[in-house]
Amino acid sequence: AGDTIKVGTFLSVTGPASFLGDPELKTLQMYIEDINAKGGIDGKQVELVHYDTGGNAKKAVNFAKRLIKRDKVDVIVGGSTSGSTLASMPEIEKSGVPFISLAGSVKIVDPVSPWTFKTPHTDRMAASKVYLDMQARGITKVALISGDGGFGKSGRAQSLALAPDFGITIVADESYGRKDTDMTAQVTNIRSSDAQAILNFGFGSGPAIVTKNIRQLGIELPLYQSHGVASKKFIDLAGDAAEGVRLPAAALLVADKLDDSDQQKAVLVAYKNAYEAKYGPVSTFGGHAYDGLYIALEAIDRANSTDKTAVRDQIEATKGFVGTSGIFTMSKDDHLGLGLDAFRMLEIRNGDWALVE
Amino acid sequence: MNRLKGFYVYAAVVALLPILFPDNYFVTVVGATILLNVILAVGLNLFIGYAGQISLGHAAFFGIGAYSSAVLTTRFELNAWLAMLVGLGLVYVIANLVARPILKLKGHYLAMATLGFGIIVNIILVQESSWSGGPDGLGDIPTLSLFGFDIDTDLRWYGMIAFFSLAAILVSLNIIDSRAGRELRAVHGSEFAAQMMGVDTVRTRTNVFVLSAMFASLAGSLFAHQQAFVSPESFGFGFSIEIVTMVVLGGMASTYGAVFGAIVLTLLPETLVVFEDYEMLIFGGILMGGMIFMPQGLFVFLTQKIRTVLNHRSGPSPKPQDAQKTLECDS
Amino acid sequence: MFDQIIQFLATGLSIGSTYALVGLGFAIIYNASGVVNFAQGEFVMLGAMSVVGLLGAGVPYPLALLVAIAIVTLVGFSLNKFAIEPARGASVVATIIITIGASILLRGAALLIWGKDIFSMPAFTGDEPIQIGAATLVPQNLWIMGITVILVLGVRYFFDKTLIGKAILACSCNKTAAGLVGINVKLMLLTSYGLSAAIGAVAGLLIAPIAFTSFDAGTMLGLKGFAAAILGGMGSSMGAVAGGLVLGVLESLGAGLISSGYKDAIAFVIILAVLFFKPSGLFGFKSVDRV
Amino acid sequence: MSIQLQQTAPSSQSKATTDPTLKVEGLASHYGPVQAIVDISLEVYPGELVTIVGANGAGKTTLLHTLSGVQRASTGSVMFEGEDITNRPAHRITAGGICHSPEGRQVFAPLSIEDNLQLGAFARKDDKTVIEAEIENIYSLFPVLKEKRLQAAGNLSGGQQQMLAIGRAMMGKPRLLLLDEPSMGLSPLLVGEIFDVIQDLNNQGVTILLVEQNARAALKIADRGYVLESGRVAFSASAEALLNDESVQKAYLGH
Amino acid sequence: MTILQAVNLDKHFGGVAAVTDLSFSVTEGEIYSVIGPNGAGKTTLFNMLCGYYVPSGGSITFAGKDLAGMETHQIAAQGISRTFQNLQVFYNMTVLENVMVGCHMRTRTGLIKAALRLPSVIREERQVREWSLEALTLCGLEHLADREAGSLPYGELKRLEIARALASDPKFLAMDEPAAGLNDTETVEMRQLIQRLKERGITILLVEHNMGLVMQISDRVLVLGFGCLLAEGTPQEVQNNPAVIKAYLGEDV
Ligand SMILES: Nc1ncnc2c1ncn2[C@@H]1O[C@H](COP(=O)(O)OP(=O)(O)OP(=O)(O)O)[C@@H](O)[C@H]1O
Ligand SMILES: Nc1ncnc2c1ncn2[C@@H]1O[C@H](COP(=O)(O)OP(=O)(O)OP(=O)(O)O)[C@@H](O)[C@H]1O
Ligand SMILES: [Mg+2]
Ligand SMILES: [Mg+2]
């Protein structure tokens, strides 16, 4: 590529995972415009090439190819869902283009593939964070419920695998479909188990319905959700039933409530203000795109070229990058670069997020 | 007699395009997808267009083929071609097993049953993650190789898929133009009269169902190796509908119609991506418009147009009314 | 255990009622033209989304409900007038593809108008759970079941007892003859599209308070409604209800007693089994064709 | 056909002065590029019974379909009681007083016989009791229909369906009745009866245009007849003249 | 020699008895007609013979074989063919193709052979075309061979069904009202056609309301009334049977 830096992206802007892809795209567009207005990177303008996968893995593969072959992008920041990321990875790895995924599954970076990175916390981290909190409350018996999409399934697998490490037994294991309209049956089973808490992995409308159904059936157990519901929308949908729900999430949701000494605060507040001024309430998902974009561009900046290998190496050399999800320090063996501390445990109180400490 | 004139022209175009544009995304990548979809559409057309049946679960066979190849080559390190054959065999068995109960049904009931079958297969792929990889899918599928040649570039894949795709069309043309093909259409025209002429219609319907399922399985195996990754959502209800749409939009009971439908329906979204949020609106509109103004299908419409232009038939001919020749109601 | 099963049944009947309503919409258009309207789910979505939009614009709640039904009915009319009617000579399958196109178009339109968000809608009469025996339901569940019963009886009366209802049936079985006895086939089709759009809208605004709504909320409901209509016997209003309730209960029992991951598969296996023994559904007429 | 019969005036004297109930001029109709009827002109006067004869494929059915709005006319005009009804939709033509018992019966198969008959009166505004009385009347003509009144029409035997189709057309209380081969599939006993019924209706003042393969019987009760050949009116004459015409006998009456 | 034998046949639909305790036999090479009022059960009898309806009781034997339990295509394979009162034409094919389907049982090509289009397939196609044209010619339809079947008028469709049935080279042909919709002159042609078929050695079972035709060509006539046997005999005998006259023919015939 000549005098522009081409950033390619394929996102689920429509379809079931549009709540991921939509803020991600907006974030990319907003910041690239901003960067270009400020003179670009090394004097080069940044160009964004984007395709909407509609959440379809097959399309993701073709669009990845299209980005590589036809648009000849320098770096790819995209892949809203784990499914579309995993699907396009073989092609991207084969072509050797640096790729920063915005999807959650731990499988993307474990085992590490040479060209693929990611910015969101993994589902394994989410499960660990939840279990830590449960441990602190003395909970040992947990009812698990999850959506049967990629996110929920993967979260469920991690939750099942990690439970013994935290001395936790899973006493119920239920699931629901993406478009199910009522989860009372599953929740009824949970009610008759001897669980001390409930953990739900899922996104979209499902978790909100689960939350409402749980309260309707008069279950008063602590309810944990995953980072899949880390947007204001969840509180809107679940309404009163959301009170007391806990979830692990990036600090972005509570940016204003952070201590001023918090290293991330400046970045978070800046992102939040910029995004909300233009589009409305932030979600953590757009933040992942922010992190991915800046990690990529800073690597290109440091590499002083768009040579693919050089950029890849520089991404691996990312150190202490303060993003919205946490502080990233990557390496050859760690293509995520976040620690468990990047997650904050939040609780919904009075229709708003609150930090649990 | 030039029964295959159209086929030769089409084959020439398929062969020439990559020679003229060897590194063009729309030729080698989208083109390969089109050719793959052609296999699916041409196969399903035998069942829907000619035999007059309906299947809303065809993607399931596509998926079974793909997963057979994926699982056997990754988990059991079976030779890819062997895996493909095993997939075909598996689909043969499954299609035969479901055919008997399912093909008892007619019309919308058949649509529902095939749809249900498709959904069940998809749920199994999602739930049985221990071998299927679940919703996250299954990756690292080795590529195909032929005589020691790895099929590892888009161009080679184009060639590979083109070969099978052309073979599929040829087979379909041959079948239609034979006793077996007339059997299919007779089942469509009047099942009982066909039986009275000695056609074992249950067997006919089963055979064509199995055959079109095997077309799909073949396409699935190719797809798995080409993409090196499979996940259940590629084989869901939506894709089943898409294949049916290809067949109908192109023009039912016409092999070239199915080909045409596959081309249009693959290219359309690929070109509409630039419209972003308007994509769905436009796509839906085009689909409706196409069927409203060309209810017989694009291909039939175009060939008729060309023929009338060539024949210089003057004078407007009124639209034929759908005079009902049969007494029976649609069931 | 027994209490649980009661709860499963109650939940199943409530979910099933919404499937029944969607299935009823399918039955009406099928009765008039032999076509399965794949945009039926989108009517449901549009109903709910319109209410959300109207409430957002400050329209009072009960009025918003009525206006939403009117809007969707109009959409139904338009679908017939501008897409189905002009496609003269289209086969049943071609017409079905038109409705598939319409469903995509309507979803696309909803996306442009309301965006991708999921919306909630207030319940008709509050969220306070009601205990009925061993089962807990919310008031909205009762609204769903009640209105379903009323609509089904109405539709059944319409087709069985009124001449217009019979005229609609006549259209689907022989358009030519229908015209010859003086039935305005176009008008009947228009009526049936309007009617089933209205019923779809009602289903939408009944269920949205429980299950939320978004531009793509219609697809799955449409599919379940289709399954309900087929299970009960295509074209029969009682069948649609029976099919919907059976489907709902199967799902609920399947999820509760066997496996929530496989609950849809269980439901479909049972539908297939029923069709195997009753190829025209639970209440469907055997097709009458003589040679 | 070569012989020249004189173009007959309407049979009964009074009719000559009245306007025709049905006046068809230069009517043509196509199926796609195929022309099925060409330049057909004919008149039917009030109270007349006119029959149309012709070989298979002559265009008789197409003509009736074009009159009743099932088939589009490509040129020409159809006037009914002085009003131009060319290419009006079928249901409006029916409502205007023309009923058509079509070829191939076309009963509403899944509906009951009673429903079929009720629908026959769909275009009428009459009172329910009036209609019910008329249904009873049809039942007395065809008792077997009453016996099976609640059964699906599709399960009837061929001849029974034919009775139903005729009954359904009669239920429309037409001023002009188009009958396409009403005797087809009926037993000899009933063929006789059907012709009696047709004659009765005609005597009650219903104008009738009758297409029949049983040309002899048809001509016996008809006032006039038209002979159709390859979509054209070859000639027309009084029924009596046609019956006695040698070439008509040879071509249509089996002699 | 008896080719078809029905013994105590019964068929009822719910409460309606369509055929009751009917026994008769057809001799090889004859024209055997079945007449009777509308709804007497004639078509139902055909439908049982062809396996479309399963008899409620009784049996049908064809050339010594019991047809019970056989499927329609197996019955067809015995050498039975038929035409239909409610036309069952393949409207999605041309006239010639309709008849070519009739040759189904005389040919072998299956899916696989067809897919590969072996030389034998091409040869067979040629043969089928020849047979079909022959059958069309016999029925006077050869000039319509390439027309879409859907565009034929009613009368010609009836003859098309006969041509199709003939293409299967049947031993036994059941015809359901072949003359319906034909005028008297055309009926004469039909009579000649049926007679030619008889000369070819085809046994014919004829249902027809046209008494002129029936009485002229039938060897024997069976009269059904309300599903029961009313009379059987030569045309002469039947015609003069008072019960038949009362129930079916009417006084003035
Ligand atoms: N649907 C159609 N498509 C094309 N051509 C048709 C169609 N229907 C009829 N025709 C043609 O129109 C001509 C007139 O047919 P029509 O059915 O009116 O004849 P008819 O006089 O009623 O014959 P019949 O005595 O057999 O009923 C015939 O040549 C026929 O082939
Ligand atoms: N599937 C069915 N269901 C119910 N009744 C039936 C069915 N088939 C036939 N019938 C009844 O059985 C009787 C015999 O019918 P069939 O068609 O055999 O008469 P047919 O002798 O052929 O009369 P036609 O001369 O009018 O053709 C009729 O009363 C008919 O209503
Ligand atoms: Mg005719
Ligand atoms: Mg009969």
Automatic annotation (TrEMBL), chain B:
One of its GO terms (molecular function) is branched-chain amino acid transmembrane transporter activity. CDD domains: TM_PBP1_LivM_like. It is a multi-pass membrane protein. It is found in: Cell inner membrane. Keywords: Cell membrane, Membrane, Transmembrane, Transmembrane helix. The chain crosses the membrane at residues 7-22, 28-48, 55-72, 78-97, 109-126, 155-176, 206-223, 243-268, 280-302. Its main location: membrane. Signal peptide: none annotated. GO terms for cellular component: plasma membrane. Pfam families: BPD_transp_2. It comes from the Bacteria. Residues 312-331 are annotated as: Disordered. This is Branched-chain amino acid ABC transporter permease.
Automatic annotation (TrEMBL), chain C:
The chain crosses the membrane at residues 6-28, 61-80, 92-114, 142-159, 193-215, 227-253, 265-285. GO terms for molecular function: transmembrane transporter activity. Belongs to the binding-protein-dependent transport system permease family. LivHM subfamily. Pfam families: BPD_transp_2. It comes from the Bacteria. This is Branched-chain amino acid ABC transporter permease. It is a multi-pass membrane protein. One of its GO terms (biological process) is amino acid transport. CDD domains: TM_PBP1_LivH_like. Keywords: Amino-acid transport, Cell membrane, Membrane, Transmembrane, Transmembrane helix, Transport. One of its GO terms (cellular component) is plasma membrane. The lineage of its organism: Bacteria, Pseudomonadati, Pseudomonadota, Gammaproteobacteria, Oceanospirillales. It is found in: Cell inner membrane. InterPro entries: ABC_transp_permease, BCAA_transport_permease. Signal peptide: none annotated.
TrEMBL record, chain D:
SMART domains: AAA (SM00382). InterPro entries: AAA+_ATPase, ABC_branched_ATPase_LivF/BraG, ABC_transporter-like_ATP-bd, ABC_transporter-like_CS, BCAA_Transport_ATP-bd_LivF, P-loop_NTPase. Keywords: Amino-acid transport, ATP-binding, Nucleotide-binding, Transport. The lineage of its organism: Bacteria, Pseudomonadati, Pseudomonadota, Gammaproteobacteria, Oceanospirillales. GO terms for biological process: L-amino acid transport. GO terms for molecular function: ATP binding; ATP hydrolysis activity; branched-chain amino acid transmembrane transporter activity. This is High-affinity branched-chain amino acid transport ATP-binding protein. Residues 22-255 form the ABC transporter domain. It holds the Pfam family ABC_tran. Belongs to the ABC transporter superfamily.
TrEMBL record, chain E:
Residues 4-251 form the ABC transporter domain. Pfam families: ABC_tran (PF00005), BCA_ABC_TP_C (PF12399). InterPro entries: AAA+_ATPase, ABC_AA/LPS_Transport, ABC_transporter-like_ATP-bd, BCA_ABC_TP_C, P-loop_NTPase. One of its GO terms (cellular component) is plasma membrane. Transmembrane segments: none annotated. GO terms for biological process: D-alanine transmembrane transport; L-alanine transport; L-isoleucine import across plasma membrane; L-valine import across plasma membrane. Keywords: ATP-binding, Nucleotide-binding, Transport. The keyword ATP-binding applies. One of its GO terms (molecular function) is ATP hydrolysis activity. It comes from the Bacteria. SUPFAM superfamilies: P-loop containing nucleoside triphosphate hydrolases. The keyword Cell wall biogenesis/degradation does not apply. This is ABC transporter ATP-binding protein. It comes from Amphritea balenae.
